[in-house]
């Protein structure tokens, strides 16, 4: 009995090693996209991948014909969605401007090629919501928002000076604009004849 168990454990280990050799690179890239880290510096992505592969290995005998890649990808998505993997804000990747849910759906749909229905079932969302989030994420990547407007450092100076300092309209405004352009003088000099 003991010999048979050892044989099964060795077989399982060989199968899993073969799986990891073929799938770890793609899964690591997916994890790196999720965590929005740089490819060469991705400790959170590696930790996320390690946790999902550990779970896949623990349930290896229960796969029963199920694709191990799907199981590992599912664990990757679940652990990312539920964990603290996305709370770190020192991201430097292309997907950094996306919210964690947008990033997760975009990676599953566009990089991994998971169907909308499967993505919705995995995340517990309606299909329409997955479709809308994916479209919004793609739009944000294709048309990034412009930088934020400069923030005022204090209260509005014109409001503090009172009504006399408020901008003028009408003919007085034209004189003020001309004064600013002529170095402060509001009178116009006659052109030499």
Automatic annotation (TrEMBL):
Q: Which GO terms describe its molecular function?
A: DNA-binding transcription factor activity
- Region (Disordered) spans which residues? 144-193
Which portions of the chain have biased composition (kind: Low complexity)? 154-184
Pfam families reported for this sequence: Sigma70_r4
Where does the secretion signal sit in this chain?
A: none
Gene Ontology biological-process annotations:
DNA-templated transcription initiation
- Please list every transmembrane segment annotated in the UniProt record, as residue ranges: none
Domain called RNA polymerase sigma-70 region: residue spans: 94-139
In Swiss-Prot or TrEMBL terms, this protein is called Sigma-70, region 4
Q: Which organism is it from?
A: Streptomyces jeddahensis
Q: Give the taxonomic lineage as stored in the record.
A: Bacteria, Bacillati, Actinomycetota, Actinomycetes, Kitasatosporales
């Amino acid at each position: 009995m003991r010999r048979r168990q050892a044989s099964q454990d060795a077989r399982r280990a060989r199968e899993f090693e073969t799986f990891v050799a073929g799938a770890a690179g793609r899964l690591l890239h997916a994890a790196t996209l999720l965590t929005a880290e740089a490819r060469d510096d991705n400790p959170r992505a590696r930790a996320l991948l390690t946790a999902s592969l550990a779970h896949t290995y623990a349930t290896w005998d229960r796969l029963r014909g199920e694709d191990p890649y799907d199981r590992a990808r599912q664990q990757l998505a679940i652990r990312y969605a539920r964990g603290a993997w996305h709370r770190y804000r020192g991201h430097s990747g292309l997907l950094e401007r996306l919210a964690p849910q947008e990033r997760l759906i975009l990676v599953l749909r566009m990089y991994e090629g998971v169907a909308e229905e499967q993505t919705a079932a995995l995340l517990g969302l309606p299909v329409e919501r997955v479709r809308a989030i994916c479209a919004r994420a793609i739009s944000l990547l294709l048309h990034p928002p412009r930088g934020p407007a400069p923030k005022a450092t204090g209260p509005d100076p014109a409001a503090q000076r009172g009504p006399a300092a408020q901008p003028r309209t009408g003919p007085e405004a034209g004189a003020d604009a001309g004064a600013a352009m002529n170095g402060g003088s509001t009178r116009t000099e006659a052109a030499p004849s």
